[in-house]
Amino acid sequence: MSLRRRNLDRIDGGHFDVLIVGGGINGAVSAAVLAGRGASVAVVDRGDFGAFTSQESSNLVWGGFKYLESYEMILVRKLCMSRNRLLKAYPDNVKPIGFLASLENEGKYSPKFAFMGALGYWAIGSFRTPRPRLLSSRRIETTEPVVDTTELSGGIEYFDAYLADNDSRFVFSFVRSAMDVGAAAANYVELVDAHFDGSRWQATFHDLDNLDEDGRPAVLGCTANTIVNAAGPFVDELNARWDVETRHRIVYSKGIHLIVPKLTNGNRVLAFFDDTGRLFYVIPMGRCSVIGTTDTRVDSAFTEVTPDDRQFLLDQINARLDLESPLTASDVIAERCGVRPLVVKAGGGDRRQVDWTKLSRKHEVEVSRKRKVVTVLGGKLTDCLNVGEEVAKAVERLGLPLEKDRQHWYGEPAAATREEYFRRARLMQLDDLRPKPDIEPLSERLWRRYGRRAFQMLDLIEQDPNMGVDVMDNADYLRVELHLAARNEMVTKLEDFMRRRSKIDLVVRDSEIRGSEGLAEVSTMLFGDRADEKLAEYLEIAPLS
Q1: Phi, then psi, of 226 in degrees rounded to 5
Q2: Angle at the Cα of 519 (from 516 to 522), degrees rounded to 5?
Q3: Is this model's pTM higher than 0.90 or not?
Q4: Is the dihedral of CA 44, 48, 50, 51 positive or negative?
Q5: How far, in Å, CA of 370 to CA of 373, rounded?
Q6: Which of 280, 277, 251 is nearest to 355 (CA)?
Q7: Residue 312 in 3-state DSSP?
Q8: CA 238 to CA 366: how far, in whole Å?
Q9: Radius of gyration of the chain from Cα atoms?
């Protein structure tokens, strides 16, 4: 029986202390902290875990340097402390990185003024990152030759952090942590109805991956004492259905990223002000670079990259880099597009009247004692640990006693466990399986992505060397990774693995993926008898005969 099937069987007909609706970063950390502190928890998402908004971030873990402009010192301090906690708890996944900000002659900030702000930012963050630097235009040209310094007055370099992998995988690590201590979790499960009878919630779901001959989904149900509404951009809609009122609501801002071949050999983020005065970045992603993001007011959570969006970013970066030839749409390997759920006060006016460009990525956790609902509005990946802890406090206020928070629900394995893994990896010469100079050593990647489960991979590779072979051209994923993903990562659609458990879809062109001889094997290893169906779904073609 699959992991997903076992979790569905536990949810159907079960009773839980807490039902969490939404498996993005807010729902994932809520599940991890509550299950880690002894609560019985169920978490469902109508899509995949870490999909939708949580898969469209900049992959940055930062304290909000730009919020100094609006004097939000308390928020910046809070985000910096969150960043510091993540750096300490996830040393192999959350890594320090420099931000080189180029300042133009006619820009609104001089290098010296920006440097003073960077020093203040460094201090607000308790000096936990390297010291900022003031840079001349000549120093920028030496440090990052790709930057066009013709119109620059200088710049600064300050430091924050970034995810060495992708955002969705980081989100799933919290879901996996919750399951490891007893939570029931299932993706592609849609909440279709929920009623509060005065003491508990009765919820009905559709299993969107289990359809009958007429295309109707299987129906599941459970009860829960409390609901956590962690539906991201859709929290207001759910609360309206449940007759839950909150003091805040959500507005949307759309942001896009373009992924292109690597633009610089430096492992730092390049920051620029675009023609509208807004910051955008060139962010490293392995052998690629990520350009973004934009900020566009929208009224729907469902968005896509338009030709104008794409051309705007290409024009902005071409004007600021000294490239052999300008980037064009044909250089774009993949695109990311999503909305930021931004928090505003409820009541008075409509969403279109809000100046969203001045809104920060703060979050709010609200409690409805009457309906026993905890709502998480807004937020960002950087602040995830705070969100989890605030949700736990809110649930306690509703009368659920939790065990003492020993903070075991997040973080990487202990240093001694890490040392033992790398000792074994050296003995079996793991890195010699793939001696590619421009790729992260295999031992480091397996540990970073899988933690303790990497020991199982060493065992399987020793037993069968074929498990240590790459499955797809240009993708750098081993058979053993597919083997364990099928067992442990609740991959329900091929896209779940290609886009979220891995980042193949982000760094390999679609034409190369479709032309890969290994794609069918990937589907077979993940889905067995349903491989042809799942592959056809991914390729959007008729099922194979």
Answers
A1: -140, 150
A2: 150
A3: yes
A4: negative
A5: 8
A6: 251
A7: helix
A8: 14
A9: 23
Both structure tokens of 499: 């886009």
pLDDT in tens, 485-522: 999 999 999 999 999 999 999 999 999 999 898 999 99
Residue 103: CB partners within 8 Å, gap ≥ 6? 109, 110, 111, 114, 152, 153, 154, 155, 156, 273
CA distances from 104 to 272, 277, 520 (A): 9, 11, 50
Cβ partners under 8 Å of residue 476, min gap 6: 434, 436, 439, 470
Alpha carbon distance 431, 478 (integer Å): 13
449-464 burial, b if ≥16 CB within 10 A, otherwise e?
bbbebbbebbebbeee
Residues 6+ away with beta carbon under 8 Å from 521: 471
The DSSP 8-state label assigned to residue 38 in this structure reads T
Q: Quick one: CA dihedral 414, 416, 417, 423, positive or negative? A: positive
Per-residue CA distances from 169 to 173, 273, 524 (Å): 6, 30, 22
Residue 414 structure tokens? 């202990």
Give alpha helix (H) positions in 105-234. 111-124, 137-143, 167-180
Q: Give the β-pairing of 269-273 and 279-285.
A: antiparallel
* Closest C-alpha among 258, 257, 238 to residue 249: 238
Tell me 544's DSSP state.
P
* Cα distance between residue 502 and residue 285, in whole Å: 13
* Residue partners of 274: CB distance under 8 A and separation at least 6: 280, 312, 316
Series of mean pLDDT values for 10-residue runs along the chain (545 residues): 95 98 98 98 98 95 89 92 97 97 92 96 96 98 97 97 95 98 98 96 97 94 98 97 96 96 95 93 95 94 97 98 97 96 79 58 94 96 97 98 96 97 96 77 95 97 94 87 96 97 94 91 95 95 52
Q: Give, rounded to a whole angstrom, the gap between the first and last alpha carbons of the chain.
A: 26
